[in-house]
Amino acid sequence: MSGAFPRLVGWVAPVAGPLLWAVPAAASLAFAAVLGAEGEHPLAELAALFSLLVAIGSAAYCYLVVLTPSGLRRLLKSMPAEAADPGAERAVVPPEFARYFSPQVSRVLAERGPSALLPDKREITVVFADLSGFTRYSELASAEETVGTLTHYLDELVRVAHVHGGTIDKFMGDEIMVLFGTPLHQEDHAARAVACARDMQVVVGMLNEERARRKLPTLGLTVGVNSGACVVGNVGGESRVQFSAIGDAINVAKRIQGLATRGDIVVGEDTLLFAGLPVDGLEEHFVKGRGKPVRMRRIGAPEAPEAVR
């Protein structure tokens, strides 16, 4: 007997809720039927309609909340986010944006939609950063070591680029191409690019110190920076589309990066002017694709990064 009452309670508890709501539902339904059968008196019809609504509401509540609480949760989850929470943030940043655009740019692009990436012509600044010594290292290291080392360096370069609001155009082996002034307009795109280049050199130096302490191989960095009018936006064919930049300024940036030595930052004259940097003592070099020499200047990196911590 001592266990009979707990078992009875355990049996009654699950059905108590449904019974509690089933009784008024059934009573209301019966009352509505009686009133409806008594005649066509307006009050009787109104009372019958009200009783019928109470019956339906009681039955629905019994089913959704008492019998199947998960049913209501599924119903709420199926509602659009805007209906469930009008104040919720509507823009969802696609995962692929985070790989190429800084968080700030990604949020704006998510809000504006694909139209923000339509082709356009504008003044931008491009940075080419190449890991010197990597080719030789990859010939001697295993595949796992090669990929691990490259990822270690490129992750840091991407982080620096995003801190300064840059957009990753592409990776080319051990080289990274970063755009400033697109896809969002940046009035100070040249200054951002120069600061990014300087911080890249500083961060690579810090990374090399850390790797040297751990007896790991180190790499250098050469950087070229140039500004000019380019066509920017989504380019490609039906099978593949990529956000990129096309123009003579891109080619020049790559050429002057090739003139840099380990630890060097070579900046084109236009970038210096846009960034408000001195243009005295410029070097002149002939580069492929140009009939006249390109004017440029080598600038140093600060002892500590300007914006990267």
Task: Give your account of this protein's structure.
The protein is α+β, with helices and mostly antiparallel strands and about 300 residues long. The protein has 2 domains: about 80 residues; about 190 residues, 2-Layer Sandwich (Alpha-Beta Plaits). The chain is about 50% helix and about 20% strand. Strands 1, 2, 3, 4, 5, 6, 7 and 8 form an 8-stranded mixed beta sheet that branches. Strand 4 and strand 5 form a beta hairpin. It is elongated. It starts with a helix and ends in a 10-residue tail after the last strand. About 5% of the residues have low confidence.
- Whole-number tally of structural domains: 2
Principal-axis shape? elongated
The name of the CATH architecture of the largest domain is 2-Layer Sandwich
Largest sheet: 8 strands, mixed
Order of helices and strands: HHHHHHEHHEEHEEHEHEE
Q: In terms of per-residue confidence, which ranges show pLDDT below 50 for 5 or more consecutive residues? A: 69-91
What's the average pLDDT? 77
Tally of DSSP β-strands? 8
Look at the helices and sheets and give the structural class: alpha+beta
Task: Indicate the proportion of strand residues.
Answer: 15-25%
Number of helices: 11
Classified by CATH, the class of the largest domain is Alpha Beta
Euclidean distance between termini CA atoms: 72 Å
The CATH homologous superfamily of the largest domain corresponds to: Nucleotide cyclase, GGDEF domain
What do we call the CATH topology of the largest domain? Alpha-Beta Plaits
Fraction of residues in H or I helices:
40-55%
Which value, in Å, is the CA radius of gyration? Answer: 34 Å
